[in-house]
Design brief:
This protein is an alpha+beta fold and 164 residues long. It contains five helices and five strands, in the order ββαβββαααα. The chain has helices at 24-31, 87-94, 104-117, 123-129, 141-163, and strands at residues 3-9, 12-18, 50-53, 56-59, 72-74. The chain is globular and about 50 Å long. The structure holds FE2/S2 (inorganic) cluster (2 copies).
């Protein structure tokens, strides 16, 4: 038996029929072809499957698709503005904040939320903000460097908009 759900995914409305047991991560990856949603531990531990649900990050491996009915869902595919990378993506690229890239979508969305709450975090606050996302490759230093730079770019953009 399947259930009808209606969601917005990266701004696009979508209605689908899903099994009640289908996870949101499987729905996004398999039904919506959004491969940026990564499935690592499937236990809510690694953060690879992080998406944005109604403005807050959530673990899509521990969320059922039916629970997301009526919500606005953001994935890493929605970060860039057409061909223009998001400042976070630019900074990760510039600072080598990724190697295999498996953890990167979840980290980008986690950091986006972190910077929305705290636009000028210390290195310690960045590390704390990242503590729920496991990266096996980078040692985190380059990620911290990238987040610090992206934070500065985003602050400058915000100030520019505020004054101009
Ligand atoms: S796959 Fe969801 S937290 Fe690891
Ligand atoms: S870049 Fe490989 S797991 Fe993070």
């Amino acid at each position: 038996m399947s259930t009808e759900i209606t969601v917005r995914v990266n701004g696009v409305p979508r209605t689908a029929h899903v099994e009640p047991r289908r996870t949101l991560s499987d729905f996004l990856r398999k039904d919506c072809a959004l491969a940026g949603v990564r499935v690592g531990c499937e236990h809510g531990v690694c953060g690879a499957c992080t998406v944005v649900l109604d403005g807050r990050t959530a673990r899509s491996c521990c969320t059922l698709a039916v629970q997301a009915d009526g919500t606005d869902i953001g994935t890493v595919e929605g970060l860039a503005d057409g061909t223009r990378l998001h400042p976070l993506q630019e900074a990760f690229w510039k600072h080598h904040g990724l190697q295999c890239g498996f953890c990167t979508p979840g980290i980008l969305l986690t950091v986006q939320e972190l910077l929305a709450d705290n636009p000028d975090p210390s290195d310690e606050e960045i590390r704390e903000g990242l503590s729920g996302n496991i990266c096996r490759c980078t040692g985190y230093q380059f990620i911290v460097d990238a987040v610090r730079e992206a934070a500065a770019v985003l602050r400058a953009e915000t100030n520019g908009h505020a004054t101009g």
